[in-house]
C-alpha cells in the first residue's frame, strides 16, 4: 500500500518498521538459530534491560555512544535513563558486576532490540536488533579468532552464502598517524584523507608516515597479500606488535576454517567507537549492508574482551528462506483429536468459527492448502 | 550480591532487571515454545516496532494507555514518539492498515518487550515481555473461547501446572450499575465499593441494582455455580445478552477442554483498559502474579477482536525447568571434528584458549562436566 493511501496513524517514524507475517517469523527463527550456535560453543545467554540509568549505560566504553542515545526521565528516581543503542556495553557491565566472580574466560551471548537516534537527514534503521557474543577476560589471537569462527558457523547454519570477514585494526593506523608527530590541524586533515581513502591527499599530508600509509591504503584486499604488504613495512616496534596480532588472528582463523573468505583493510577505522584491537565487519555478496561487526575492546576496569554482533534484520535477507507450517482448515464442529495430531506432525490448523455451506472455499480464502473433513486430510 | 556492595553503575532503575544465564535462556525458550503453539493454531507472527508516533500508538483503544507510556521526542520529525506499554494496540493498527486486505478472521501472534511508567511509589516490573495472540474480525463465543483454549495449550506445553482461567465481563457490571440510574457521586462510590468487593457498601449504595450486585459479588468462584447464580438473576434484556455470552464462552471452552479450571468473577473489572466483552486473567497455583490476561475489544474502525497475552517472565517461574546443553572442555590444539560432532549431538563445547598443565582442573573451573581428550569424551 502506498503510504499516501494509508490513514495517518499508519505512519511510523523514519527508521522504525513493522515486520509482517513471513518476515517476523524469519527474523525470530534466525535469531534463535544463531543463538543456538552460540550456545553450542558454550556462550550463555544473558538479557539486560532495554533501559538503564544514563550514568551506567554510557559509562566506560559506552561513553562513545552518547550521541546516538535517546534519554528518558524516570519519574520514580528523577534520574535520566537511556534507551540502549548497543548491548555490548551492557554485557560488559554484567560481567563486571553480577558476574564478577564467574570464571574467565566468560562467554556470554545476547539477543535484543536497540534504538539509535540516527544521523540527521539520513534515512536508516533506528531500531536495530542485535544477536551477539562476548568473550571476556582474555586477550589473545585465539580469542579474537574464536568470535569470528563462531559467527561464521552461525551464518553457515542460516544458509548465508558468500560471506566475507573484513579485518581491520583501527588502533594500528592511529598509532602510525600518531608517530608522524603532526599538529592537530594536519592530523585531522590526514585522518579525513584516510577515511576518504584519498591516496593523493594521504601522500601529501602524511609527513614521515606518508609512505607507510600509502602502502597500507593499497594493501586493502584478500588477507594473504595484504598481510605480506604489512610484513614488508618498516614499522616502529609498537606498531609491529599490533601488525603481528593481526597476522596471528588471520593464521588461527585459517587453521580452523581454511575456506573462510578473509579480507584485511588496514586503514579502515570508521564506525569503531570503543574498540582497541583487531576489528571485523561481516559482509555477504549481494548485501549492501553489513551483516555484523565486532572486535576487541576494554570492558569495565580495563578487562580485555572481544565480541561480535550479528544483525538479524540484515541476515534474514541473505539467509535460506524458512519453511512455514502448511495450513489445514478444520471446519466448525469437526472432531479435534486428528487436528491435534496434525499439529504435532508439523501442520498449522485453522479452526472455522462459523457454520458454512462451502468449507473448501473458506479454506482457500484463509490460505489453507488442506482441509480436514471426516478425519481425512484433503489437499485443495 | 547485596546492592550496597555493588559499584554504582550496577544499579538499575526500579522495575528493570538483568536476567542471568539460566533465566535468560529459559525466558527465550519459553517465548519460542509459546509462539510455536500459537503458530500451530494458524496464528502468524508480526513484529511492530518498539516506538511509534504518540498519535498512532495511543489512538483508539490505545488512549487508555496514555498515563503508562513514556514519550520521546524524535529529532528527525520533531514529533513525539511513544515507547509501547502494550502490543495489542499495535497489532490492531497493523490489522487495520497494512493487513486491511487480509482475509478475516485474521490470526496474528507477537512477542516483544514493552515498557510502562509504573505506579508511583509501588515497586513492580516496568519492563514487561509479552507473547500473545489476537483473533481479529469476528465477534463470537467460539472466538472468545479459542484464545483461551490456545493459551491453555501453550501453558500445558511449557509444563505449567494447576492453571486457572478467571473469566469476567467488566461491561456487564457497568451496564447493571448504569441501569441503577445513580448520580455521578453515588455511582463512583458504588464502583469503588465493587472494586473493594465490599458487600455491605454495595448493598447500601446499589439502589435498585443492590440485590443483583450483591448476588453477583457472592457468585465469584468456579464457573458452573457462578453461571447458575447469573442465570437466576432478573437482568434487563441488554444485560442478559452479555450474561448469555459469558455462559456460551464457558460452554465452548468446556466442550473442548473439560478438564480446564475455569472460574467466573462477574464483578471483576480492575485493570481492563480498553476491553468491551468477556475478559480473562490467567493464574497458576503458587504464583501470586498473573500469567497473562486478555479479552474482547474493538480494534480500529470498531472491528471486533479478542486476544490473550502471556507474560514470559512470570511463566518461566511456573514452567518445567529447562535442560541446558552439557558442557565439554576441548583443550587448545585438540582436533575439532569430534567437537563439531558433539555439538550436533547436543553438547556445548568450550574451547581452551591457552596451553595448560592440568586440563581437567580447567574444565572443572569452567563448569564443564566432560573433557574431550584424544577424541575421547570423558566424564569428570
TrEMBL record, chains A, B:
Example GO molecular function: glycosyltransferase activity
A single BP term in Gene Ontology: L-histidine biosynthetic process
Signal peptide range: none
Keywords: Amino-acid biosynthesis, Cytoplasm, Glycosyltransferase, Histidine biosynthesis, Transferase
Keyword Lipid metabolism attached: no
Compartment(s) where it occurs, according to its Swiss-Prot or TrEMBL record: Cytoplasm
Tagged with keyword Transferase: yes
Highest taxon above the source species: Bacteria
Pathway where this protein functions: Amino-acid biosynthesis; L-histidine biosynthesis; L-histidine from 5-phospho-alpha-D-ribose 1-diphosphate: step 1/9
GO cellular component, one term: cytoplasm
Known role: Required for the first step of histidine biosynthesis. May allow the feedback regulation of ATP phosphoribosyltransferase activity by histidine.
Complexes and interactors: Heteromultimer composed of HisG and HisZ subunits.
Family designation: Belongs to the class-II aminoacyl-tRNA synthetase family. HisZ subfamily.
Note: This function is generally fulfilled by the C-terminal part of HisG, which is missing in some bacteria such as this one.
PANTHER family associated with the record: HISTIDINE--TRNA LIGASE, MITOCHONDRIAL-RELATED (PTHR43707:SF1), HISTIDYL-TRNA SYNTHETASE (PTHR43707)
Protein's UniProt name: ATP phosphoribosyltransferase regulatory subunit
Amino acid at each position: 500500500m502506498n503510504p499516501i493511501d494509508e490513514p495517518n496513524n499508519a505512519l511510523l517514524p523514519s527508521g522504525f518498521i513493522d515486520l509482517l507475517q513471513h518476515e517476523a517469523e524469519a527474523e525470530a527463527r534466525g535469531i534463535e538459530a544463531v543463538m543456538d550456535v552460540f550456545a553450542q560453543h558454550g556462550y550463555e545467554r544473558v538479557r539486560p534491560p532495554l533501559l538503564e540509568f544514563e550514568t551506567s549505560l554510557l559509562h566506560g566504553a559506552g561513553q562513545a555512544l552518547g550521541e546516538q542515545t535517546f534519554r528518558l526521565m524516570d519519574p520514580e528516581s528523577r534520574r535520566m535513563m537511556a534507551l540502549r543503542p548497543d548491548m555490548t556495553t551492557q554485557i560488559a557491565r554484567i560481567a563486571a558486576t553480577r558476574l564478577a566472580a564467574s570464571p574467565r574466560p566468560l562467554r556470554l551471548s545476547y539477543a535484543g532490540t536497540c534504538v539509535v537516534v540516527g544521523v540527521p537527514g539520513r534515512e536508516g534503521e533506528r531500531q536495530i536488533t542485535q544477536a551477539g557474543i562476548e568473550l571476556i577476560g582474555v586477550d589473545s589471537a585465539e580469542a579474537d579468532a574464536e568470535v569470528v569462527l563462531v559467527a561464521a558457523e552461525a551464518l553457515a547454519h542460516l544458509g548465508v552464502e558468500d560471506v566475507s570477514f573484513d579485518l581491520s585494526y583501527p588502533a594500528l593506523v592511529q598509532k602510525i598517524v600518531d608517530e608522524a608527530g603532526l599538529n592537530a590541524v594536519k592530523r585531522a586533515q590526514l585522518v579525513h584523507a584516510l577515511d576518504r581513502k584519498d591516496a593523493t591527499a594521504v601522500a601529501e599530508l602524511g609527513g614521515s608516515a606518508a609512505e607507510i600509509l600509502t602502502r597500507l591504503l593499497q594493501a586493502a584486499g584478500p588477507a594473504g597479500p595484504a598481510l605480506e604488504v604489512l610484513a614488508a613495512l618498516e614499522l616502529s616496534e609498537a606498531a609491529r606488535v599490533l601488525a603481528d596480532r593481526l597476522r596471528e588472528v588471520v593464521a588461527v582463523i585459517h587453521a580452523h576454517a581454511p575456506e573462510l573468505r578473509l579480507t584485511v583493510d588496514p586503514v579502515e577505522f570508521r564506525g569503531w567507537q570503543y574498540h582497541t584491537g583487531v576489528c571485523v565487519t561481516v559482509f555477504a555478496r549481494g548485501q549492501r549492508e553489513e551483516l555484523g561487526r565486532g572486535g576487541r575492546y576494554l570492558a569495565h576496569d580495563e578487562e580485555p574482551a572481544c565480541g561480535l554482533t550479528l544483525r538479524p534484520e540484515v541476515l534474514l535477507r541473505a539467509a535460506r528462506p524458512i519453511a512455514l507450517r502448511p495450513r489445514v482448515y478444520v471446519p466448525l464442529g469437526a472432531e479435534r483429536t486428528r487436528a491435534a495430531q496434525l499439529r504435532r506432525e508439523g501442520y498449522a490448523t485453522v479452526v472455522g468459527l462459523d457454520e458454512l455451506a462451502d468449507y473448501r472455499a473458506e479454506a482457500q480464502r484463509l490460505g489453507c492448502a488442506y482441509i480436514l473433513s471426516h478425519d481425512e486430510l484433503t489437499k485443495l
